[in-house]
Write a structure and sequence with these properties.
The protein is mostly helical. It has a domain at 30-91. 80% of the residues lie in helices and 0% in strands. It is built from four helices and no strands. The protein has helices spanning 5-12, 16-45, 51-59, 65-91. α1 packs across α2 (16-45), α2 (16-45) packs antiparallel against α4 (65-91) and α3 runs antiparallel to α4. The radius of gyration is 19 Å and the shape is rod-shaped.
Length: 92
């Protein structure tokens, strides 16, 4: 048996639209959590908490740019994804 959103909403006695919004919000939060864990793991590797702090390490000459480049690019990507997910959560 395939469960539909309407069937679940009916069983829970809540409007389908409310269930849809709650499900979407939960999905977006889970995705944000996943991206944030990876971002924090990469930052922690260099003893920093943000992309800006990673950049500061390079500018200050504490880390060679070539050494940090791949992780820096990944943190940049993850930071952008987190902003995008946060914007979407506001809209839901």
């Amino acid at each position: 048996m395939s469960l539909t959103l309407d069937a679940v909403a009916d069983q829970l006695d809540i409007p389908t639209q409310d269930l849809w919004q709650q499900a979407l919000q939960a999905f977006l939060k889970e995705q944000a959590r996943f991206y944030n864990v990876e971002r924090l793991r990469l930052c922690q590797k260099y003893g920093v908490a943000s992309l800006q702090e990673m950049d500061a390490l390079v500018v200050q000459g504490k880390v060679d740019e070539e050494t940090i480049l791949t992780d820096f690019q990944r943190v940049d990507f993850l930071t952008a994804k987190l902003r995008q997910l946060n914007d979407l959560m506001v809209e839901v």
